[in-house]
UniProtKB/TrEMBL annotation, chain A:
Family, similarity comment: Belongs to the complex I subunit 4L family.
UniProt function note: NDH-1 shuttles electrons from NADH, via FMN and iron-sulfur (Fe-S) centers, to quinones in the respiratory chain. The immediate electron acceptor for the enzyme in this species is believed to be a menaquinone. Couples the redox reaction to proton translocation (for every two electrons transferred, four hydrogen ions are translocated across the cytoplasmic membrane), and thus conserves the redox energy in a proton gradient.
Name of the protein this chain belongs to: NADH-quinone oxidoreductase subunit K
Catalytic activity: a quinone + NADH + 5 H(+)(in) = a quinol + NAD(+) + 4 H(+)(out)
Organism per entry: Actinotalea lenta
From TrEMBL, chain B:
Basic and acidic residues: compositionally biased ranges: 168-179
Role according to the record: NDH-1 shuttles electrons from NADH, via FMN and iron-sulfur (Fe-S) centers, to quinones in the respiratory chain. Couples the redox reaction to proton translocation (for every two electrons transferred, four hydrogen ions are translocated across the cytoplasmic membrane), and thus conserves the redox energy in a proton gradient.
Highest taxon of source: Bacteria
Enzyme Commission number: 7.1.1.-
Signal peptide positions (record): none
Top EC class of this enzyme: translocase
Chain spans, region Disordered: 168-187
UniProt name for this protein: NADH-quinone oxidoreductase subunit J
Family indicated by similarity: Belongs to the complex I subunit 6 family.
Organism listed in the record: Actinotalea lenta
Membrane association type: Multi-pass membrane protein
Length: 100, 187
């Protein structure tokens, strides 16, 4: 188990999440893709911490990343709920006002 | 040795479950697959002796995915046995972008000469994290706290069925808001 190999696993997780975030039409599925990407960041952060500088600072940074994931989740659900209530849909293609 | 085996099994589960999230037809199963991926990452963090963060990730994500499954069933409410789900757009572009990103990140991970470890982990990592959070890194947590509070307020404002902007409907210039129950100061 080396840093490089753990980072390759994190890269695979990140790529899968990116594919989902870019390709999915349902808002909640897009959120799942973003969650997978943050999951990869947590793994990579933990690996960097363990293999380079195992000081408490790295753990605090990981706590902040986990908090960011919580914020993303809460706001994503709120937006999905709002979209569903206003439009009766949960598809990203139906919320494209900013394109105009 | 056992730690290495556990790590690689967890890595395999994390990536395979991540792929399964977007392959399955069932919303609930997609949530469970994502939860499995997070649990596997939590196990990998435990392999790095990050006991506190590993347990936090596992507990938090299992609960989060349970809520997510509820939302997905609530919003979509489809039975995968009756209606197979494939709601994607720009699949080819997404595949190319994801593949390029993976190759780039993996190449960087393998080719960059990473520095050797500097220093040794504390004897009690959870205690050292607690000391940091309550001591030198307290400002970080003091910053995260209002962000989480603002998130609660923002989510409530967005999720509430009737907000201040809906009181006037489409006509924002109207004299009186269209409240179902009149009240307040005589409006």
């Amino acid at each position: 188990m080396t840093l490089s190999l753990v980072l390759v696993v994190a890269a695979a997780l990140f790529a899968v999440g990116l594919w989902g975030a870019l390709s999915q039409q349902v808002v909640v599925m897009v959120m799942m893709g973003i969650e997978l990407m943050i999951n990869a960041v947590i793994l990579a952060g933990g690996a960097f911490w363990w293999f380079t500088t195992p000081s408490p600072d790295g753990q605090v940074l990981l706590l902040v990343v986990i908090a960011a994931m919580t914020v993303e989740m809460a706001m994503g659900f709120a937006v999905a709920l709002l979209l569903h209530r206003r439009r009766g849909t949960d598809m990203t293609d139906m919320a494209s006002e900013l394109k105009r | 040795m056992i730690g290495t085996i556990v790590f690689w099994v967890a890595a395999l589960v994390a990536v395979a479950a991540g792929v399964e999230v977007f392959r399955t037809d069932s919303m609930a199963r997609a949530s469970y697959a994502l939860a499995a991926s997070f649990v596997a990452v939590g196990v990998m963090l435990l392999a790095f002796e990050l006991d506190y963060l590993g347990v936090i990730v596992i507990l938090m994500m299992v609960m989060e995915m349970a809520i997510m499954a509820l939302f997905m069933i609530m919003l979509m409410g489809m039975n995968p046995a009756l209606m197979p789900m494939s709601m994607v757009h720009g699949k080819r572009t997404a595949t190319v972008v994801a593949a390029v990103v993976f190759v780039g990140l993996a190449a960087a991970a393998l080719l960059i000469p990473w520095p050797d470890r500097a220093g040794a982990p504390a004897a009690d990592l959870t205690r050292s994290l607690g000391d940091a959070v309550m001591g030198s890194k307290m400002l970080v947590m003091l910053t995260v706290s209002p962000v989480l509070f603002a998130t609660i307020i923002g989510a409530l404002v967005l999720g509430h069925p009737r907000d201040r902007y809906q009181r006037y409907g489409d006509d924002l210039e109207r004299d009186h808001p269209d409240d179902p129950i009149q009240g307040g100061v005589g409006r």
